[in-house]
Design brief:
This protein has about 500 residues and is α+β, with helices and mostly antiparallel strands. The chain has helices spanning about 5-20, 35-40, 45, 90-100, 150-155, 155-160, 165-185, 225-235, 270-290, 315-320, 330-340, 350-365, 415-430, 445-450, 465-470, and strands at about 50-65, 65-75, 80-85, 105-115, 120-130, 190, 195, 210, 215-220, 240-245, 260-270, 295-300, 300-305, 310-315, 370-380, 385-390, 390-400, 405-410, 455-460.
Amino acid sequence: MASIEEIREARLRKLEILKEKGINPYPIDSHFDKTLKEVLGEFESLKDKGKLTLLGRILSIRAQGKIVFFDIHDGTGKFQGLLKRGEPTSESDFDLFNETFDIGDFIEVKGTLFLTKKEEKTILVESLRMLSKSLRPLPEKWHGLTDTEERFRKRYLDTLSNEEVKTRFITRARVVQELRRALEERGFIETETPALQPLYGGASAEPFVTHHNALDMDLYLRISDELYLKRLLIGGFPRVYEFARDFRNEGIDSTHNPEFTMLEFYEAYSDAEKQREFVEDMIRRVVKAVSSDGIINFDENRIDFNSKFKVEKYADVLSAHTELIDPLNATREDLVTEAERLGVEVEHSDSAVKILDGIFKRAVRPNLMEPTFLIDYPVDYLPLTKRLPLSDKLVDAFQFYAGSFELVKAFSELNDPLDQRARFEAQEKVLKKGEKDAQPLDEEFLEAMEYGMPPAGGVGIGIDRLTMLLTGARNIKEVILFPTLRPRND
């Protein structure tokens, strides 16, 4: 079997032959009368209407003496072509095809439609033209591309050779479209906030730091767009949303990528309970756009989104799945003991809330397969959230889980600037103790709040994990077109 370099050298020689014959192998123009999907759908009416011009990438070539069958694909569908040497294909075009055309080349063909003896829809080619000469061979059902990481590095070949992968990303686009449609129908407007920020905030995560030379200042890639979207509430926009690329300088695993997509939306004069109803409607709507019966099969589990979603308290599910009797009032020592029992790593600088979250992720989250809202979180867990009216220790928030994924985080937004300052100050103390993902005090945001922020409900939805659930993917890299990868080991 020829090596990649040998194949490339052979194709370079074919490229030179084309140029020597005065043929531009990369012309600026291309023409087509119908997409291949349209031709397949309208075949009966088109086959009696004379000549058509079609185009696409060659996927296969089957030569049989003076005839050659080939398949082309234009991104909408696949169609068969037939060359007959001398009639109707000119001898020069027929010989040129055999001499210089390869699988992977983009071509334009002109001819008439007909059905073969095997009832295959085909175009009988009268003339053809090279649109783009390929220099490397396409993988044949992953021969030479069996390595999973190589699939992620060469996603363009992954989607080209694997229809299931391509369909997964089409589904992702449909999910985003459906979410956007639901928000627009409710009167939300789409906005854009800075990806480069002078101070990060809006989530508990460690940021990426960069430096702007002209201003001679450090900037952070955003970990969330929350604090900027809240500024828009203050500025008189009652309903805002953004599909944002967020960046968090954390580990990479099956559900985490340093660069990921979040939908965040904020609604003035709303709260967590109202947003919970809206989120349930949105999630059910998106699921039915992907699976018309409202049921998703994921990891050998049948998840039904038609019934009313369950609502449970954060403390109750922790008690049910751990040995913590009163988890929200447990001492740090008790939490460390339970974490060690479960095999959860604990750093010396970790706060009680962070340890509790690690316990939750290990013991509880894998059991949250059915659609479930968790409510009543500890106040230190969500420092941007309003307290519950009857408890200073709990906040009015919810998180939504399905398929053991955390998909949504939402709360009644804290709009008391004095309380917010106190929460930021508490976070600053944790930050100084070494917990890198605590939230810093943001004086500019506090100043904005002092001008008056309306009561509001805010929601964040993880697009990558939602797509994982809806497509059955077990690794976040399968739903991100170009995931973050280590450098090659050359």
